[in-house]
Amino acid sequence: MSPIDLDVTRSVRAYMASCLGNEPVSIERPSLDRVHAGLREAVWYSPKDRRALRAICDEHPQQFTRWLYECERDGRYTGVIMVWPAGYATPIHDHAGLWGIEMVLQGTLSVEDYELGDERGLRHVGTTVLEEGQSCAFLGTQGHAHRCTNLSARRAAVTLHVYGGLLDHYRNFDVGRGGRYVPVPTRAQVDGRIGATHAH
């Protein structure tokens, strides 16, 4: 597929450029909350975007795909669009210590949050259901992990993500002997690019 550009990714790039200035975003909660609130106001997901992403959903109806729309030149954030086939769930995974913001553009997503450290290696601490237009943010500390699921059994979901750095690897948590979760280093796949991304 040829690179495409979207109104929603252009609006994210413009907001992040004005928000970051010459400084990285602090991982402290007040700073992340300000960025998250501003991003919700700045994002414009147009009918043209919906048609373009529908084409990606139709081209990969059974496949979870990740589309890079920004790798900011100073490495301060990475932007990804994800397309979720019906019923798809990720493994439990972390984000390599990076903060993150995740927004649902189409569909409904369940986000199960975990903390590292109990006898099984992970402890479930809560679940959030995000509907279209809703979003969540996380600090991405070393103790944080989560699993996301497209709750529809019939329709694809589309989400937009911003991560506080270059997210090219992370850890999945697989169940090992005795039911204990075992971290597995994983490379972040990129299935394509949306718009003019900048190399780190």
Automatic annotation (TrEMBL):
<keyword id="KW-0479">Metal-binding</keyword>
<keyword id="KW-0223">Dioxygenase</keyword>
<keyword id="KW-0560">Oxidoreductase</keyword>
<dbReference type="InterPro" id="IPR011051">
    <property type="entry name" value="RmlC_Cupin_sf"/>
</dbReference>
<dbReference type="Pfam" id="PF05995">
    <property type="entry name" value="CDO_I"/>
</dbReference>
<dbReference type="GO" id="GO:0008198">
    <property type="term" value="F:ferrous iron binding"/>
</dbReference>
<feature type="binding site">
    <location>
        <position position="93"/>
    </location>
    <ligand>
        <name>Fe cation</name>
    </ligand>
</feature>
<dbReference type="GO" id="GO:0016702">
    <property type="term" value="F:oxidoreductase activity, acting on single donors with incorporation of molecular oxygen, incorporation of two atoms of oxygen"/>
</dbReference>
<dbReference type="InterPro" id="IPR014710">
    <property type="entry name" value="RmlC-like_jellyroll"/>
</dbReference>
<protein>
    <submittedName>
        <fullName>Putative metal-dependent enzyme (Double-stranded beta helix superfamily)</fullName>
    </submittedName>
</protein>
<keyword id="KW-0408">Iron</keyword>
<dbReference type="InterPro" id="IPR010300">
    <property type="entry name" value="CDO_1"/>
</dbReference>
<feature type="binding site">
    <location>
        <position position="95"/>
    </location>
    <ligand>
        <name>Fe cation</name>
    </ligand>
</feature>
<comment type="similarity">
    <text>Belongs to the cysteine dioxygenase family.</text>
</comment>
<feature type="binding site">
    <location>
        <position position="146"/>
    </location>
    <ligand>
        <name>Fe cation</name>
    </ligand>
</feature>
